[in-house]
Design a protein that fits this description.
This protein has nine helices and seven strands. It is of the alpha+beta class.
Length: about 250
């Protein structure tokens, strides 16, 4: 299968990855996230990235603070290590049995500028909270994760049990049907991948999609939810990619 600009429900079209995206995808999937320059050069070859293109990309990425130059090669910067942690959590979310409680976060800070408000919304969304109304965010209390300490200055958090049926509320807060439809299209793409470059392109989209998975308790999900299948497919690909990097 060749990846062209195939539109996905609720997703941008799949497009070939740039040299920068190929390098980041490889390092984000590596543990530890560091590769010798020679190994990196061999690893990007199957994805259509030549030596001069790679050198230019590495130079730009180092200057931009995406990568750090080491004695032997390149590693992710601290900023991108945080992205790797989010990506790892998307693959293996830390959950606990759900007893019906919900997390509720209320934004209490005032006088913030547009950029600060946008940043806070992004951070709350990354914590898999959904906005019920302006300044009020919710999710089932089934995630095993604390809220970051620095958010205490701008939010108040509570445990609650909303009056609406939990399944109905979840369907209101998240576009579950759209997410599931896109996941199934991605699984279909995965089944038809033939070239390494196509695989990396599809799985870059898979990672983005898993980051948007609300990770709800099974009781609140639609029938035949494809989240587990998508995670399994990505875990299999990541294992194959890691083995290929070791052989490079």
């Amino acid at each position: 299968m060749r990846i062209d600009e195939t539109a996905l429900p609720g997703e941008a079209a799949l497009r070939p990855l740039s040299a920068r995206s190929v390098v980041l995808s490889l390092l984000l999937g590596a543990h530890p996230p560091e590769l010798p320059g020679r190994d990196l050069a061999r690893a990007v070859e199957p994805f259509g990235v030549g030596g001069s293109t790679l050198r230019a990309a590495l130079s730009r990425m180092t200057a931009a603070g995406d990568l750090l130059r080491t004695d032997t090669g390149y590693r992710l910067s601290e900023r991108l290590l945080d992205r790797q942690r989010r990506q790892d959590d998307a693959l293996h979310p830390h959950t606990r049995a759900w007893d019906g409680d919900w997390e509720m976060v209320v934004i209490t800070a005032t006088g913030r500028g547009p950029a600060e408000r946008a940043d806070l919304r992004t951070r709350l969304g990354a914590l898999r909270l959904a906005e019920l109304r302006e300044g009020v965010w919710l999710r089932p209390a089934n995630l095993r994760r604390p809220l970051p300490d620095d958010l205490a200055a701008v939010i108040q958090s509570f445990t609650t049990r909303p009056a609406p049926p939990a399944r109905d509320l979840a369907a209101t807060l998240w576009p579950l049907v759209t997410w599931a439809d896109t996941a199934r299209v991605l699984l279909d793409h995965i089944a038809r991948v033939e070239r390494p470059a196509d695989g990396l392109t599809v799985f870059a989209a898979v990672v983005r999609h898993l980051l948007a998975d609300p990770v709800l308790p099974p009781a609140l999900l639609p029938t035949d939810w494809p989240g587990t299948a998508l995670r399994t497919a990505y875990a299999d690909y990541l294992r194959e990619l890691t083995e290929a990097l070791r052989r490079a």
